[in-house]
């Protein structure tokens, strides 16, 4: 798995996940529980992970939809 995206905004993560699922790219959000434990104040970012072989295609989907990867 390779990190595609890191964000403290749950709406960005949900949108990114929906876009990837629409393109049949498997993704997994990490650090969701940590984000919930901190009380939703946005200190800890969530990470969107994809398989290494899907990374380039997933990054293209993010760029095409205006989601910055921050790298």
TrEMBL record:
Pfam families: DUF2007 (PF09413). It comes from the Bacteria. Residues 1-64 form the DUF2007 domain. Transmembrane segments: none annotated. This is DUF2007 domain-containing protein. It comes from Ruegeria sp. PrR005. The lineage of its organism: Bacteria, Pseudomonadati, Pseudomonadota, Alphaproteobacteria, Rhodobacterales.
